[in-house]
Amino acid sequence: MAASDAIAVTRALDAVLRQDRGRLLAALISRLRNFQLAEDALQDATISALSHWGRAGLPSSPQGWLLKVALRKAIDRLRSGTRETRVGAEFARLLPEEAADPDPEMITDDRLRLIFTCCHPALDPKSRVALTLRSIAGLSTPQIASAFLDADTTMGQRLSRAKAKIAAARIPFAVPGPEDWSDRLQSVLAVVYLIYNAGYTAGPTAEGDLCAEAIFLARLLDRLRPEDPEIEGCLALLILTQSRAKARIGPDGMTVALTLQDRTLWNHAAIEEGHRLIDRAMARRNPGPYQIKAAIAACHTVDPIPDWPQIAALYTRLLDFEPTPIVHLNRAVALAETGALSDAMAAVAALQPVLADYAPFHAAQADLLSRAGQTAAAHAAYDRAIALAASAADAAFLIRQRDGPPN
After folding, report:
1. Structure pTM?
2. 17: closest CA among 55, 46, 38?
3. How far apart are CA 160 and CA 180, in angstroms?
4. Which residues on neighbouring strands pair with residue 249, listed in sequence order?
5. What CA–CA distances, in Å, run from 230 to 269, 280, 397?
6. Does position 201 have pLDDT exceeding 80, yes or no?
7. Which end of the chain, N or C, is surrounded by fewer C-beta atoms within 10 Å?
8. Residue 58 is part of which domain span?
9. How many domains does the chain have?
10. H/E run at residue 11
11. pLDDT of 82 above 80
């Protein structure tokens, strides 16, 4: 295969996996009832695609081809790794699937069932979120570890234990009934939010697919469970945040601060939809963390100068639900904007031990130190934030903040 052909095949395969990896993996897990086997089989099929597609060309149904070959690879793994007498039942169930020729339009979308399986109460909350990010969004272990501020090895061990526990406990692959819904809803919403956040912070080359995936899942949840205020709040939060996506990176490739963004680039239809959703959710008078986060996002879209006292008050209320270091940091930033600089600096300083490797912490600290006239300390904090920046655009923004505008 010529080098140019290999590149074309690799790009085509990457595009298919970016679009449909979660759907394919969910379809495989639905059939195999085994997370690790499904992941391994899809990986095997991906490797086969690189050589086969290079020789025979791109199939008419790349998704169907991958699903069919992955099922065959799963059977090969079962046959080679286990005595036939112990896997006869598996073969009997899988062989009809192997003989089929799946059409991508006919591949059942089992992603929602997979999310609820990952978010079963038998798993601890952190593992529920991490496993769904891995299975549905296809995030790598280092990406998930970064989202949790964990070490890669720690997260890898957590994911392995979660998969093993699902298999050992025979956790059902199903959307729960109403009686079990509340136990898993917050974990499911956390998954959706983190999927969106991973796409948003990754930069313009990667954010589209993940952000769209998260909004799709939030809309799916809203259709499945209408009139739930927290689902409405989560959907509103994502829509309001995404409405500003085109304005957050300037022509120079630099992140643009929210208050300096060109509002003509905002998606105002999306903003109106987000406001309608959060108004409807809050009218149900059953507040929760996603409704509060959406209300904060809504405050940033109303006037050029945000209502910082209201935003600070909302963060204070959010602490009742999520007393996390990140919420404390955001509340401190809002306090500084209200003029309470000393209180904000004290609050940020107290977060140093737990947020030492978190770029926004150092960026916030640098800004507060600069406002207080502590130039040398601010410069050092900016250096640390730049070193930890999640993207080149963020790093460029922080360098500009540290050095000031060019002469």
Report:
1. 0.74
2. 46
3. 25
4. 255
5. 22, 11, 34
6. no
7. C
8. 3-108
9. 4
10. helix 3-32
11. no
Same domain, 293 and 321: no
Q: What are phi and psi of 255, to 5 degrees?
A: -60, 140
Structure tokens at 16: 């298919």
Estimate the crossing angle of helix 325-337 against helix 308-321, to 10 degrees: 160
Distance CA 136, CA 117 (A): 11
The alpha carbon torsion through 236, 242, 244, 245 (nearest 10 deg) reads 170
Rounded-to-integer distance, Cα 263 and Cα 305, Å: 12
Spatial CB neighbours of 274, under 8 Å, sequence gap ≥ 6: 236, 237, 239, 240, 243, 294, 297, 298, 301
Q: Is the pLDDT of residue 95 over 60?
A: no
Task: Report how far residue 243's alpha carbon sits from residue 266's, in angstroms, rounded to the nearest whole number.
Answer: 6
Least confident of 163-167, 221-225, 242-246: 221-225
Of the listed ranges 156-160, 289-293, 299-303, the least confidently predicted one is 299-303
pLDDT, average across residues 163-172: 89
Rounded distance, CA 299 to CA 303, Å? 8
% of the chain residues with pLDDT over 70: 90
Of 15, 35, 10, the closest CA to residue 25 belongs to 35
Q: Are residues 77 and 114 in the same domain?
A: no
From 108, 130, 146, the end of a domain falls on: 108
**Has residue 219 been placed in a domain?**
no
pLDDT tens, residue by residue, 29-43: 988 888 888 999 999
What distance in Å separates the CA atoms of residue 332 and residue 345, rounded to the nearest whole number?
7
By CB neighbour count within 10 A (0-12 exposed, 13-18 middle, 19+ buried), where does 40 fall? middle
Q: Is 255 helix (H, G, I), strand (E, B) or coil?
A: strand
Residue 232 CA to residue 376 CA, distance in Å, equals 45
